[in-house]
Design brief:
heterodimer, A: 111 residues, B: 865 residues, alpha+beta, six-stranded mixed beta barrel, six-stranded mixed β-barrel, flat
Chain lengths: 111, 865
């Protein structure tokens, strides 16, 4: 079974969060906002490409806009396989966190 | 609207696949515009660059992910194969390395050859006038030209600058207590306009303007003025006068030129030297084509060959003798070396054929090594069959597999290049020791960047050449067949190819080995040939235009000198002097060689008089009266017998009637590789060039010291120049002997490569047949019979190669020997020797492997069945 990398996970979740507005620029902005770290365009694109190739994401072209120099956007949408992959990941994470000896910080506060 | 940075934009563009290129560029531009609106253009600009640099590696990785992965896999497979098949790799890499080292040497040599005189800025526009001088129907092609031609050339509008050069400047130069011989040319001040020699000190424009000016090369300047600036100092030449040093030529690494000089004297000096009769008249002499050269710089875009025609027309009037015609041609500077062989050269040009000859030999040797690779790859094709099958099933197409196998060959040849380069370090000095000329222009020290590129390209080429056939046939395997039952894959067609290649390798090796033997035998035959005279203990002293008679009187009575004679040249050193003769009453003019001697020569060199008598004593002081012929000359003039020639009169030149008073037995007068020619011995004291002094063996040093002392008395200016006749003869043969060494070296390497291949093949074949051998043993086959059985195939190939090579080598050998007058016969012995040599080595390789295989324990061989 393929366990997603953190970058992949972030990308998938961002696509789901952004729904109809998920394309390169917004995804990167969202991830940067969430992680409070600078992500290069290439790094995001790398994940998105890989996920599309694996079939977790579906890509389709939007209309060209002037602020993009007349180039079209590439929107992403989560596929069924993408959902499943996220579900598996979630499960793995929950198992991993379950019944841990106390780490000394409150995990619930963030959720 | 201000745009994102162009270069970064372009970088992004090329690092992405076409499919998503516009999307990514769009994303970037959107970010860019947003940041520009928020924080201004400058920040956005920086951001764009930063992001581009950060992203490009990711993009490249993403777009080429599979290519990288597959490349990694290919590289891994190659390395594993190299390690797994150690014998195969060793044989291939070493074979390739040996032959590649020869090729590298040749490449380097060709690079060096084609860099002669290429440093001149105007090299494309520099020409030299050369002379085709025809006298009495015989054409001489000379690098020289009469000096007054320069003035005629200057009249042409297409000619920018003309420079006259005269050779043979020099002698002993004295500066204070320092005295060294230096030599060079006389040259006009335009020398530095035409040629790109830079001056370290002094002014190039005026350095050669005034009479008695002298420009030194750096090495010559160092000899006299170590460390000091020589400009303004005076060097005195005893024969010529005082010269004022006006410049020093800078020494640079790539100063390879056909102009070889230590110093240049101003040509304007010649005016006064000619007046004092210290040099032979040449400035206004249209007939002097001995040591003068005319170079000129053509104007840009002018056609040189138009000048040629009008030049010849313009100078026609200066020549009246219809017997001697002069035709002038233009030779481009870049065509001088490598170029035509011309008489009176400034330095011997590299023959035009040489680069081609070397390339052909190198290519043949390379081919042999490539065949090793091809052969062995095909031999172990089956071990790769499964891999090919799997790759095809998984999705590789034939082209991909083809490239994979070519790539493998290229990697092997690149590894071989490394070893070849190491070998080159040994080979190069060996090769350079063969020929003095090579050393002068060979680029041994600095390895230019361009050369390295050429080496690598060459290795890639070799890899492709070697890997082509295996790649073609390995990529052809049908996956279904291969994966189902490997043993049923047909490889018969490849077996034939392998055999052809092996036969070719041995064919070439045979030819090389037989050529070496032929050359060796011919050279030792020539050097041991009875020359018909006795050269032992003879010292040839150059007379250098001093009076022979005076010198002779000084030394003839010394107790350690047994005889002294004079001659116009020393026989058997390749020299010929030719004149015309005719019998009175006959219209036929006969061209005949002659040697001018005195009355002591015949006895001194032990020539045998077979009829008549020697020149009477005192012939020298008489006006020439007598001649002595050799046997060939007797025949040539049509006299019935030696005795019949005595007393006959022959007219030499125009009107010199000489009476034949004797006939000597034939001896070699010009060279032992040409037939003995008709020769006339005469007494012409003005022709004497050498004093032949026979000395006693005791106290040679003392005798030479005595000679030197007496020489100084007779000739105070020029130093004594002497050589032992035996040394001179020896030296005359160094060129062919060195050629022999070179060919021997190449033969050795070729055989080495071929036998690398053979041993590899035998090892593979016996390994492949290991089960067969095991079964044969179990069934009762003796080791002896099995050895014969598996060796048979290889022995047949060797014999076939020998059968094919013998007529070819015979043909080549005959072609070579045809040129030689005194030649060995191309007998059975030579071929027998060559073939048995090859067979001996071949059999050792074959049988050592097959016997080993035949003696193995069948239990071991069949354990897994």
């Amino acid at each position: 079974m393929n366990i997603l990398s953190r970058a992949d996970e972030l990308a998938l979740l961002s696509v789901w969060r952004l729904q109809d507005e998920a394309y390169g620029v917004t995804i990167r902005k969202h991830i940067i906002k969430m992680t409070e770290a600078d992500w290069s365009v290439g790094a995001i694109y790398d994940s998105l490409e890989r996920l599309t190739e694996w079939g977790y994401l579906e890509a389709f072209r939007g209309d060209p806009t002037p602020e993009r120099g007349g180039r079209s956007k590439r929107y992403f949408k989560l596929t069924k396989e993408g959902f499943e992959a996220l579900a598996r990941l979630r499960k793995v994470q929950e198992y991993m966190w379950l019944n841990l000896p106390d780490l000394g910080f409150d995990t619930a506060a963030k959720e | 609207m201000r745009k994102p940075p162009k270069i970064a934009h372009w970088g992004l563009k090329i690092s992405n696949r076409k499919k998503n290129r516009d999307v990514i560029l769009g994303d970037f531009e959107e970010f860019f515009n947003e940041i520009r609106e928020e924080s201004g253009f400058f920040k956005a600009y920086l951001w764009y660059w930063k992001q581009t640099l950060k992203s490009i590696p990711r993009f490249i990785l993403t777009t080429n992910y599979w290519r990288f992965t597959m490349f990694k896999n290919y590289a891994k497979v190659v390395l594993r194969n190299i390690v797994k098949h150690k014998v195969f790799s060793f044989v291939n890499i070493m074979g390739l390395a040996v032959s590649m080292s020869i090729c590298l040497l040749v490449i380097k040599l060709i690079f060096s050859i084609y860099s002669i005189d290429r440093f001149h800025e105007n090299k494309e526009r520099i020409f030299r006038v050369i002379t085709f001088y025809t006298a009495k129907g015989h054409e001489n092609r000379l690098a020289t030209a009469p000096l007054p031609l320069a003035a005629e050339l200057k009249k042409f509008p297409e000619v920018e600058t003309v420079v006259r050069i005269k050779n043979n400047f020099g002698g002993y130069a004295v500066y204070r207590e320092k005295k060294f011989p230096i030599g060079g040319y006389y040259a006009d001040k335009e020398f530095f306009d035409v040629f790109s020699f830079a001056l370290d000190s002094g002014d190039a424009a005026t350095a050669l303007a005034k009479p008695y000016s002298l420009v030194l090369t750096e090495s010559a300047a160092l000899k006299f003025f170590a460390g000091k600036n020589p400009v303004g100092e005076t060097l005195s030449f005893r024969d010529l006068g005082e010269f004022n040093v006006t410049g020093v030529i800078k020494k640079t690494a790539n100063l390879k030129t056909h102009l070889r000089f230590e110093c240049l004297a101003s040509a304007s000096t010649l005016v006064s030297l000619e007046k004092q009769k210290k040099v032979y008249a040449s400035l206004q002499n249209w007939k002097n084509v001995n040591d003068n050269y005319v170079y000129f710089l053509l104007r840009e875009n002018a056609a040189p060959y138009k000048i040629e025609e009008s030049l010849n027309r313009a100078v026609k009037n200066f020549y009246s003798d219809p017997e001697r015609t002069y035709f002038f041609k233009l030779q481009a500077l870049t065509g001088i070396s490598p170029g035509l062989s011309l008489g009176n050269f400034l330095s011997p040009p590299v023959p035009v054929e040489l680069p081609y000859l070397f390339s052909i030999i190198a290519f043949i040797i390379l081919l042999i090594a490539c065949f090793n690779y091809t052969n062995l790859s095909l031999a172990k094709a089956l071990s790769r069959a499964k891999e090919v099958g799997i790759r095809k099933v998984v999705g590789a197409n034939r082209a991909k597999l083809f490239y994979q196998f070519i790539g493998e060959a290229v990697i092997i040849s690149l590894i071989a290049l490394f070893f070849a380069f190491l070998l080159l370090q040994i080979l190069e000095p060996l090769f350079l020791s063969l020929n003095k000329e090579f050393r002068l222009f060979f680029n041994s020290s600095n390895l230019e960047f361009g050369l390295i590129i050429v080496f690598v390209c060459f290795a890639v080429f070799t890899g492709v050449l070697a890997g082509f056939f295996p790649a073609l046939s390995l990529s052809k395997f049908n996956p279904v067949l291969v994966l189902k039952d490997v043993t049923r894959v047909k490889i018969f067609s490849r077996l034939t190819l392998r055999k052809v290649l092996v036969v070719f390798q041995f064919f070439v090796s045979f030819i090389f080995i037989i050529s070496t033997i032929v050359l060796y035998k011919q050279i030792s035959y020539e050097t041991n040939l009875d020359q018909g005279f006795d050269q032992k203990n003879i010292l040839n002293v150059e007379l250098q235009r001093t009076d022979y008679e005076t010198f002779r009187q000084e030394i003839a009575n010394y107790h350690n000198i047994s005889a002294v004679s004079a001659s116009s040249f020393a026989p058997a050193l390749g020299t010929r002097w030719i004149t015309v003769a005719k019998l009175p009453g006959s219209p036929d003019k006969i061209e005949i060689d002659y040697l001018s001697i005195d009355e002591y020569f015949i006895e001194n060199l032990g020539l045998e008089l077979i009829a008549g008598r020697n020149f009477p004593a005192g012939s020298k002081s008489l006006n020439e009266k007598y001649a002595i012929l050799n046997e060939k000359a007797v025949e040539r003039f049509g006299f019935a017998a030696s005795g019949a020639a005595i007393g006959r009169v022959i007219t030499f030149e125009k009107d010199k009637n000489l009476e034949v008073i004797g006939v000597v037995k034939d001896f070699i007068s010009s060279s032992s590789s040409s037939p003995i020619l008709p020769l006339v011995l005469r007494v012409k004291p003005e022709d004497y060039y050498y004093a032949n002094i026979k000395i006693k063996e005791n106290d040679v040093a003392g005798t030479i010291e005595f000679l030197d002392e007496k020489w100084k008395k007779v000739e105070p200016i020029r130093a004594l120049k002497y050589r032992f006749f035996t040394d001179q003869l020896e030296e005359f043969y160094t060129a062919p002997k060195n050629a022999l060494k070179g060919i021997g070296m190449i033969t050795l390497l070729t055989i080495l490569v071929a036998f690398f291949g053979l041993s590899g093949m035998v090892i593979y074949d016996t390994d492949a047949r290991v089960k067969e051998i095991g079964i044969r043993k179990v069934m009762g086959g003796s080791a002896f019979n099995i050895t014969l059985e598996i060796s048979r195939g290889f022995v047949v190939l060797l014999v076939l190669a020998a059968l094919l090579a013998t007529p070819a080598a015979w043909f080549l050998g005959n072609m070579f020997l045809q040129e030689m007058a005194n030649r060995i016969s191309l007998g059975f012995g030579i071929f027998a020797l060559g073939i048995s040599l090859m067979f001996a080595i071949g059999f050792i390789i074959i049988f050592s492997q097959t016997i080993r295989a035949a003696n193995r324990n069948p239990v071991e061989m069949l354990r897994y069945e």
